[in-house]
Structures are given as structure tokens and as C-alpha cells.
Amino acid sequence: MRDRHRLRARAVHRITYLGELGYELYIPTEQALHVYDRLVDAGAHVGLRHAGLKTLASCRMEKGYRDYGHDIDNTDSVLDAGLGFAVDLKKPNGFLGKDAVLAHKAKGPLSRRLLQILVKDPQPMLFHAEPVHRDGVPVGYVRAASYGHTLGGAVGLAMIDAGQPLDAKWIEAGTWHVDIAGTLYPAIASLRPLFDPENKKIKA
Questions:
Q1: How many angstroms separate the CA atoms of 145 and 128, rounded?
Q2: What local confidence, expressed as pLDDT, does residue 47 receive?
Q3: Which of 11, 76, 139, 153 is surrounded by the fewest CB atoms within 10 Å?
Q4: CA-to-CA distance for 139 and 99, rounded, in angstroms?
Q5: How many whole angstroms separate alpha carbon 95 and alpha carbon 144?
Q6: For residues 75-96, b (16+ Cβ closer than 10 Å) or e, as one string?
Q7: What is the distance between the alpha carbons of residues 118 and 105, in angstroms, rounded to a whole number?
Q8: Would you put residue 202 in left (φ > 0), alpha (ψ -120 to 50) or beta?
Q9: Residue 160 CB: number of other CB atoms within 10 A?
Q10: Are strands 153-161 and 112-119 parallel, antiparallel or unpaired?
Q11: pLDDT by residue (tens digit) across 171-203?
């Protein structure tokens, strides 16, 4: 048992939920304080600083990373949520929900998609449920948001219903605003993450 715990304490996954080069450590509960102390000591000479859940929320929102149960849920198609890359339609024996994904895909171009929204004015805050307008017409609402310190404004994820094929061309052709407490603020809408869209920081 001790050897197994020692092995688990060294489990490091090359994965990030922040949009930067990152790792996740998988350790037994009883070793958490010991590992924490070792990390703090090791990071002292490089300026390691503590960061909490609000920092996590801000970073993942700038990168457009989804949070199941918050931004998306089981009423959303993986295609509408922009997660089509995460399912393998050629997987042997399929997977739960495959037929529904195939049927949705067969309908043609998507008209409902989760977009990243950035408020151009750096002052107002986004929380969630703010209506999103395209050319003066409400087309969806913000599902989750935070302040994007790197992007320089409030940023969120909004589910948009276009009523027609929703692609980059349709997005770029429109003028976008977010209704924050009754005031319409100019915004940028994007299918791709506004922070490091080429994933250069993750691949570094």
C-alpha cells in the first residue's frame, strides 16, 4: 500500500485548464500538505505565487475552456458547445449519444453555438445571464463570465441562436453588444479563443 501511494504521489498529468503550459498533480489526500510544502519551497526562487478559483475562472474564460454544469449541460449538443473534437464518431462500438450527434450533424450547418464574448470597454463587469445582441437583435445570453486581465475586459461564453448557419463569416458581418444592467456595450464575438488562438503557449 505504501509503495502504491508513493507511485500515485508522483502522478503528473500534462494538462491545463488555464490556457498556459500547465500540469495537474494527482496525490493521496494524506500527502497533500507534504506535497504542498515541497512545491512552495521549490517555487520560492522563481517567484511562485498562490492563486485561487477566481484566477482559474478568469484564465479559463479567456481561453474559452468550457465548464460542464456551468457553461454547458446535458441539454447542449457537443457540436453546439464547440466540443466536436472531443468525440470520435469512428470509435469501435460507438459511444453513448453517438446517434444523436450524428443526427444533429446530418441536419447541416450549425445555427446554435457557444461563442466567446469580450466587452470592449474595460470598465463594466460580466457575471452571467446578460443578453447578447447582434445588429440590435437579442440572439442569446452569457452563460458564464469573468474579467479577462490579459484581454483587458470582461469576457464570457454565450450560447447564440442565429436562426441561420452560424459561422465566422456571420459573426464578422454583425455588430455585437452586451446588455449590462440596461446599457448596451460594444463587444467582440468569436468562435475561437481570443487568448492564444494558435495554442502556442500550451505547446511551448
A1: 6
A2: 95
A3: 11
A4: 28
A5: 28
A6: ebbbbbbbeeeeeeeeeeeeee
A7: 28
A8: alpha
A9: 23
A10: antiparallel
A11: 999 999 999 999 999 999 999 999 999 989 888
Q: Cα–Cα distance between 110 and 79 in angstroms, integer?
A: 8
Cell triple for residue 177?
453588444
Residue 5's identity, in one-letter code, is: H
3-state SS, one letter per residue, for 59-111? HHHHHCCCCECCCECCCCCCCCCCCHHHCCCCCCCCCCCHHHHHHHHHCCCCC
Residue 138 contacts by C-beta under 8 Å, 6 or more apart in sequence? 131, 132, 179
User: Which amino acid is present at 34?
Assistant: H
- Using a cut of 0.70, tell me whether the model's pTM lies above it: yes
Tell me, what DSSP letter sits at residue 204? -
**What is the residue-wise DSSP string for 147-195?**
EETTTTEEEEEEEEE-SS---HHHHHHS-EEEEETTEEEEEEEESS-SS
26-33: Cβ within 8 A, 24+ apart: 30/5, 31/5
Burial classification of residue 57, based on how many CB atoms lie within 10 Å of its CB (0-12 exposed, 13-18 middle, 19 or more buried): middle
